[in-house]
Structures are given as C-alpha cells and as structure tokens.
Design brief:
The chain has about 140 residues and is an alpha+beta fold. It is built from three helices and six strands. Strands 2-1-6-5-4-3 form a six-stranded mixed beta sheet. The chain starts with a helix and ends with a strand.
C-alpha cells in the first residue's frame, strides 16, 4: 500500500499537467479555426486580431507576405477562399509559443482564376497578453 501512494500522486501530477497543456492546445486550436473562418469570410477585424503585426506569411509558391499584404489580399478579394479543410493537425505548446502543423485543402479564386490547394502548413503562434496570434506561417507543396 505504501508504494501505491507515490504512484497515485505521480499519476495525478501527470494528469494535471496534461489538462493544463490541453487547455492551451485547445486555445491554439480555436485560434487556428477562427483564422481559417476569417480567411474564408475576408473579415478584416478578425484577421487583424488573430495575426501579429510582425507576421511572416509564407505561401507554398515561395512568396512571403507581411500582415498588411496578407490581410489586404483576403479583404480586397484578390484571394477569395470558398472553403478550407484542415486535417492531420498537431499542436505543440511551449510556454507562450505554439507550433501547429497540418494538411490544408482549400478552394479559392486567385486573381479571378479558380484554384484548388492541397499543401502542408507549419505555423508558429505566440501568446500576446493572453491571446494567441499567428506570428509565422509557411506553406509547402506535398
């Protein structure tokens, strides 16, 4: 019975840490979902609140946008997403930083031309004053 108490205490500690980690992972997942919705909606206010002012947004083509360029393309309609589907997402939180990887499928119109994307994504999220914001994103061809 004496050996059971330390094992039980250890298990409670592990479960407690996992729950705390899961809370932050859930918050990052919610931010990622909100970003995808804002991209489809072309919602400038949401896009600004979900991205860092120092955003580096890398496209799978190699083009890199800053926050203003990223948001302007979506709000102006030069890039118009009709759907975004995320699969195989993983989230790793480390303090005020989070790494998100996923497979991104999307349908959009880019400069008037229909495009279907299927790419991999690596995102870095950072917690600013309690809110997760996208700091960096890189798309890559599969």
């Amino acid at each position: 019975m004496k050996s059971f108490v330390p094992v039980f205490a250890f298990l409670i500690l592990i479960v407690g840490n996992a729950a705390a980690q899961s809370k932050e992972e859930s918050a990052v997942m919610a931010a990622t979902s909100a970003l995808n919705k804002a991209m489809v909606d072309g919602d400038k206010t949401s896009l600004e609140s979900l991205t860092a002012t120092e955003l580096s947004y890398g496209h799978s083509s190699g083009k890199v946008d800053n926050q203003s360029q990223f948001i302007t393309a979506l709000v102006s309609g030069s890039v118009d997403f009709t759907s975004i589907d995320i699969t195989n997402q993983t989230i790793q939180v480390s303090g005020k930083n989070a790494i998100v990887r996923n497979m991104f499928s999307g349908k959009l119109t880019s400069d008037g031309k229909p495009v279907e994307l299927k790419i991999g994504i690596l995102m870095v999220w950072k917690k600013y004053k309690g809110n997760w914001k996208l700091l960096a994103r890189q798309g890559y061809k599969l």
